[in-house]
## 1
Amino acid sequence: MSRTVNCVVLKSESEGLDEPPHSGELGRRIFDNVSKEGWRQWLERLQMIINENQLNTGDASAIAHIEEHMRGFFFDEGELGGTP
């Protein structure tokens, strides 16, 4: 039986992720509050963010920038997240 979460992206009860998709406290928050479909929608957005900002995901500053977008996309925190 799969676990369900009240997804902050879909605003409904949906199938949860199998494991935290990111490290640390942010990964745990996402695991607890984002569904598989919500995560899929994030991955589409992430592709746009990486391409439009020409980010190198091996660079720590790029990861920090992506995490800012994650907090905005999932939790409406900060200035980023609504648009890449």
Note: The CA atoms of residues 21 and 83 lie 21 Å apart.
## 2
Amino acid sequence: MFTKKILKNLSQYKTPFYYYDLQLLQKTLDVVKAESSKYNYNVHYAFKANTNSRIIDLIQKNGLGADCVSGNEVKCAIENKFESSKVVFAGVGKSDDEINYALEKNIFCFNCESLQELDVINELAVKQNKLASIALRINPNVDAHTHKYITTGLEENKFGINPYEFETVIEKLQKLPNLKLIGLHFHIGSQITDLSPFKKLCSRVNEINTYFLNKGFDLPIINVGGGVGINYHEPDKHAIIDFASYFKVFNDFIELRKNQELHFELGRAIIAQCGSLISKVLYIKNGINTNFAILDAGMTELIRPALYQAFHVIENISSKEKNTIKYDVVGPICESSDCFGKAVELPETKRGDIIAIRSAGAYGEVMASRYNLRDEVRSYFSE
């Protein structure tokens, strides 16, 4: 069905383009809501995964909150009708302008990541005569066992406040009257496919939650971030991840007090499998040791393989050849890192064939660039 829909409408589309299956997105959202509601969990959509207007419109209509890591993401959420009471603003480097805008819009919470940030938000809140609700982004020193560039919960990472700073934080909060501490925030990394790190996270959350209670802070919100991974190797077989097991881990291992809410920030797990990058073969360059399939899409449209050496399923969806050949599938960008996959076994491929790079719904379009003065790429949708 996926292939037929694309090839049927290909004459209307100029490659490369992003192709989104909105039916799959809705089915995914239905599962997220059903499984999280069993425990009365609150789910925010991580805007950094994909901010395509059609995508976030559908997510907003399904009642999710917004997890934002920049002022423009906060603005995007507000302008796309996300309730300000469901907008959370995280990030290690919030500018004064970004903070002021979020204060003006009365967002739900700032996730604060450093001692100095507490001072800055308080100072700006005083000027607006606002009381800013904050959560402390805690670095729990839990290894997510994922790629080093998307690990965020170790002391060596730039994110969050470390436990040895807790006493200083508590002293500081007593002197900052325009801040209201309402919660603790954690996030250990992304693309985590083994649930055991989340069990370890629960243990650390329990310890830290108890610590703050003993210090007089009975906090209503615990935010455990997101990071649950998808199956990049089998996008059709595992189009929707096992959200039931994911949420059950937290129900089984986290110790919430009466009336404490548990919040999540899910991005990739919701949107990644709904999107593909569709490209056309420009040239076949056969060599003695390596054959190249050169596409009209490049790292400017999907940077994950170049940045993280990430794997994506690559399919020739137009070829009817039975003979297979291994190709290095590369793009046109003037960089040797512009490679989607090495020794990829495909049906014998020719100029003009259509290639689908799967699981590109997250961190594809949103990370696209105009490097090499590339044209801006369009998006198309299946309803």
Note: The longest strand covers residues 275-286.
## 3
Amino acid sequence: MDRAQRAAALAGEVIALAQSTLMVHLRFLDRALAALRPVAHESLWFAADGVHLYYEPWYVLGRYRWEQNAVNRALLHAILHCVFRHSFVGRD
């Protein structure tokens, strides 16, 4: 397993931890949190399209190292965009 694969796996664990933490504290969002499937993506830092949660592994790991709750807040922000149907920015 190379360094990029290890980073993607570890970032996936951080995302899963953030999802679990938010489910415990915000139980009413459990279905929305469970609906997004995390997918490592090299060019999207952190984005959701209503089905997938795209994340750049090194970005997630850096945010988690800087402050553990930063990933929770980013995930909550993405979830709320989906809940309120603001999944896309701009006209296109």
Note: The first strand starts at residue 37 and ends at 40.
## 4
Amino acid sequence: MLEYLKLTNVGPSPSMELKLGERLNLLTGDNGLGKSFLLDIAWWSLTRKWPAEINPRLSSGLMARPMESGKGSIAFSFTAKVKPVSYVSVYDRKLQAWSGKVGRPSNPGLVLYAQVDGSFALWDPARNYWRMKGNIDVQDRPPAYVFSSRDVWNGLRDEERGLLCNGLISDWGGWQKERGRAFKSLCAVLAALSPSEGEKIVPGELTRISLDDPRDIPTLVMPYGQSVPVLHASAGIRRIIALAYLLVWSWEEHLKASELLDQESTAQIVFLIDEIEAHLHPKWQRRIVGALLSVMDTLAPNVNVQIVAATHSPLVLASAEAFFDAEKDAWFDLDCVSDEKNGVRVELKQRPFIRRGDVSNWLTSEAFDLESARSLEAERVLRDAAVALSDDAFDSHRARAREAHRRRVLGDPDPFWGRWRFIAEKKGWLS
């Protein structure tokens, strides 16, 4: 498990430090403050490769570099198979690379990274390793499996090694025809990741969608009775079924490789996921964190799983209230702060996770820093109303004129009107 990260002169802040929880870690913060960047760093710390270094087709997952002149370093520690690993890597400006130990990296278990654009990276201790020959690393196997969003669906190829993964369309079709362990796992994962108990994601019969496409295309049985090819599914459903497929594929291939090597399968999984709620309807956002914890337990029982997830969704945070455990979980928040001495800077804090009840309370928390859970126009008219209520010179004519505008913005059921009516009657504005 990833235990610790410290960045010095790397990223949007002079220094960032995280002590991660062993189970669930949530990252919040405005756009551009470094959530995805921290996930990239976490992946690199565990695998020693940047995603885009392995698959140049990616538009994200690029190598991190120092932001300012001077020394840049990344310190990290994680629980490996044999013993805990701690290391400080320093950026070598002449080599344009990060320092690292030669030879096979320590085994952090299975490492999964789901990026927001649909790309996906996997490091498998049974399949991704290299050996030392003298003082040179000789990579006999792929350093990791890194999929672009297109690779996920159509297959992953390597110029040197050829086909590495058949892709969702081909594998799903093959699994469904075999009706073996992989397809049963896929059905179970799809059911667990469904938007609601009454709206399960269920595979339909394989179909052909074009005279020019010889593939058997998986379908999904929709709530309204029709079967829709997965290629025509909505963005939200496509994200979930791609995630389900990759989780099953990663675990199945790891089990097969472990059997071939006559070794035990991994005892731990680190799952990094960026914008966990991307493309998902609110009812899905309320379920996704708990569903992923449940899925990992179902897919890989007796395996320790750590999730590190970035989110912009108050529903995701509200949904975590039921099972968040401060002994095992952590919430980190990125903010833009300023003072006279240091000017404007990005600051990372681990915040206490407070159960706030109503999701709107999360919008006004440190996670999102909104003034209220209302629209911008509603905030403006309420500020105007507050001034009017405290102004002794405010007359009934102006009050009635402003009230008409407020009703267009706020609507009759708004709780504001109870307070407004009480004070307006006392001031004689309603007479």
Note: The mean pLDDT is 89.
